[in-house]
Amino acid sequence: MTRTRFADIILPLAVRGRFTYMVPESIIDYVKPGMRVIVPFSSNRLYTGIICALHDQPPAVRNIRTVSELIDIVPSVNEMQLKLWLWISEYYMCSEGEVMKAALPSEISLNNYKQKLENYIILARKFSDDELNKILDSLKKAPRQQELLLSWLRLSGYGSGSPDIPVRKSSLLAESHSTPAAFETLASKGVLSSRHQPVSRISDEVTDMEPVKKLSAAQSQAFNSIKNHFNEKDIVLVHGVTSSGKTEIYIHLIEEQIKKGKQVLYMLPEIALTTQIILRLKKHFGDLTGVYHSRLSDPERVEIWNRIAGNDDSGCYRLILGVRSSLFLPFNNLGLVIVDEEHDGSYKQHDPAPRYHARDSAIILAALHKAKTILGSASPSIESYNNTISGKYGLTELMERFGQIKLPEIILANTREAYKRKLMVSHFTPELLRAMDDALGREEQIILFQNRRGFSPYIECSECGWIPVCIQCSVNLTYHKGINRLVCHYCGYNTGMPSKCESCHTTGMVTRGFGTEKIEDEIKIVFPSARVARMDQDTTRNKNSFNKIIKAFEERRIDILIGTQMISKGLDFENLTVVGVLNADNLLHYPDFRAHERSFQMLEQVSGRAGRREKQGRVVIQTSDPANRIIRLVLRHDYEGMFRLQAEERKSFNYPPFCRLVRINVKHKDRSLLNYYSGILGSDLRQAFGKRVLGPESPAISQVQMWYIKTILIKIEREKPHARAKQLIADAIERVEKEKGASALRIAVDVDPY
Ligand code: ADP
Ligand code: ZN
Ligand code: ZN
Question: Each residue of 643-653: pLDDT tens digit?
């Protein structure tokens, strides 16, 4: 019999490849892939790694090291997770260690995860109502015991229909003003008992449960269409206009999966969206539902991790609502993955590696589990829609709003005209002001969208035109009035407002352009009696700030909500009837081949927030270019028109989905050395890829945090296997990194850049 003498181990390093260690005799019978081990690495450093394979093939090196310690008794990471890590590392050209770093909550990877155990009180057995009443009566002579039991019944939610919640012993004693002795007596009588279990860090809000809603005829049709597609295809794109009730359809699909004993992953692009949808889901699925996002503390993450893996007897999650990184949770029985707002660019991680696309990786995750995937959107990505045309994905369409409400009426407001004719009030056109007036008069609510935070994107000397820029990046500093500072949105550098121009020393510094902060200020002047709030990165730094703002808006304690793209997606407010887009121009004029697609999606999304219940909503789009093709398409809610236009353009200029893109970002702190080395890399790549290499060129922002940047873009044919092309790219990068003096060069590869 061969013995597993060697373990291939993933270490949290950017170095590609696995590391082989000897397995000591003492643990040979226990080791399994997915277990954590401690291993020595370079000079005396110890690392926690994950075993990904066991075998008896001695590696080619002479001094093979030995595993120092085995941490786990059962694997921390399952086989499917290891396969997903490998796929991501190969597809997105990074190390498995980098994927591991993104995937594991740091408490698990640092190996200092200890569960804090606490005493929880539960009923010693199931009692009938009669029995409980008898016990309570008999306890009249022992008021402390009676009080204790009554408090337990209250705190555990007994009789609510859902399972009792174990009550922490310390809270029970405090709440009931009782004594440990009273508890001991109740325990000896067989009424209550205690058990040790990990302390839950997750505050499970108790929600009233409801059965799932009955689907409308159009929704049932869509539901059936999805199920029919699933007989033949693994992936279905649900193209449903905003407020068509896609979420309700997903809820029906989730219910089926849960009944079958399966797990479901429901992905959203934005943390702000999880707030509303989690409540909708908990109404139907209660404690089976968990939520996972970047605002959680490490202990919370670990708890969720364990509840999904089923390592935790405090209840196993069957439905996870989460952002990008929820893909890495230890699902063991996934039946369905839902990627909502699938077109959203936030699904792509930019920095650091792994630069993965969560939608595309989720499809792989689902495939590993033999599960199905739903991609949902009101304005699908060109890529996904194209996959329905080629037959790779099924397509289900839902073209009417729930309740037959009409899609919002779109009003274009020409800012150029309005400025010329002096009709603008601050940044607001007469059209927008009229719509807002109407809404406020009817006590309806308004959302104003401006995709820039801060007060003004830059300030300028009115004499000589000098503009303060970041000392570390090639970007203008944004003025934030609340803190009265100039801030770099790329690196966070900030400085006081200059009293004088640094170039001509006059005192005429003026603010230019406008961000959400300025809009908030001015709206308060124009509508002094309206209640105004703002939602952007600056107002949502605290853990619960999203919930607070969204709740206040739901409860109509806010009349006008101003925000960035955070408020543009997926939210569902009953009384919101008017949406204003303050400046559509800066969406359209972004230097990127996806700019038009994105503007369409953004405008369609934000419009979709308006008029979702009783009556048609109104959207006012302010633009200096009302004849713009994309704006005209938005006006008609013409997704297919947009798709045809974009697909044609991309086909003729050879852009995705008609090719694959790989972008290489090269950085150096010395500009001329950057030019030199990126030039070498460019020519080397041309040897293999010829004209399909673009660049090196300077991106729009050519310096960030002191690093100068050049990018090289490579177009790879869609039909050809991309593994070979990626190998050629990796080889070329390795060669330039080995050049003399190239050690201060930083090279990052971004596959399918967004
Ligand atoms: P989408 O996800 O397509 O934007 P939602 O699922 O949020 O749409 O539905 C829009 C609104 O209509 C929500 O408030 C939702 O609760 C309501 N709704 C949708 N379908 C139904 C239904 N079958 N019964 C009752 N209300 C529904
Ligand atoms: Zn000046
Ligand atoms: Zn900066």
Answer: 999 999 999 99
